[in-house]
Amino acid sequence: MHVAALNISLPDWTAGFVARWPDAVDDVMRMRLAIALSRENVLARSGGPFGAVVYDADGTRPLGVGVNRVEPTNNACLHAEIVALMFAQAAAGSWTLRRASAAPRVLYTSCTPCAMCLGAVLWSGVGRLVCGATREDALELGFDEGPVFAESWRYLETRGIAIELGVLADEAREVFTRYKASGGLVYNA
Predict the structure, then answer these.
(1) Is 51 exposed, middle or buried (0-12, 13-18, 19+ CB in 10 A)?
(2) From the centroid of its chain, how far is CA 16?
(3) CA pair distance 62, 54, nearest whole angstrom
């Protein structure tokens, strides 16, 4: 069967959830939104335990949000980071989130990105990446994060992407614990 179109959507609960989220003026509040999205995705059983948001560095409202949509859409590419980047690019009306004369756009993700998502970070045009839980946390849960090496991070940095790891990592790990306890599917183990 030939499929001629795809429809990428967020779960119904996300619009109201994000609308109620307070303005975020710092990394902690922005990361808390990424983690809250991952938690709600687990509680609503609408996907895996990962959340991501894109902000203008000087903005208070997210430009795009994403949660893991792999299982409900049968699409291995729809990781939270990819979804957030796609919605941010749609909101920006551009294939790139790079801005030449303004503060960079920032991707906040509840867990360090897998190999695929690191590639998307590079191509997306964000100028900064802020991560919560670690690769080791995802591996411990059973997810295969693919070939991500110290060189992968250095490559992004040499391309002008600032990286901050471990922001609110304990809070992000709690979502993994909840996901595991709920019997959530580890779909790429």
Answers:
(1) buried
(2) 19
(3) 6
| pLDDT attached to residue 101 | 81
DSSP, residue by residue, the chain: -----------TTHHHHHHHSPP--SHHHHHHHHHHHHHHHHHTTSS-S-EEEEEETT-SS-SEEEE--HHHHT-TT--HHHHHHHHHHHHHTSS----SSSPPEEEEEEE---HHHHHHHHHHT-SEEEEEE-HHHHHHHT----S--HHHHHHHHHTT-EEE--TTHHHHHHHHHHHHHTT---TT-
**Beta-ladder partners of 106:** 55, 128
Active site amino acids: 81
Whether 19 shows a pLDDT value over 80: the answer reads: yes
Q: What is the pLDDT of residues 83-128, one digit of tens each?
A: 999 999 999 999 999 988 888 999 999 999 999 999 999 999 999 9
Residue 93 region by backbone torsions, left for phi larger than 0, else alpha for psi between -120 and 50, else beta: left
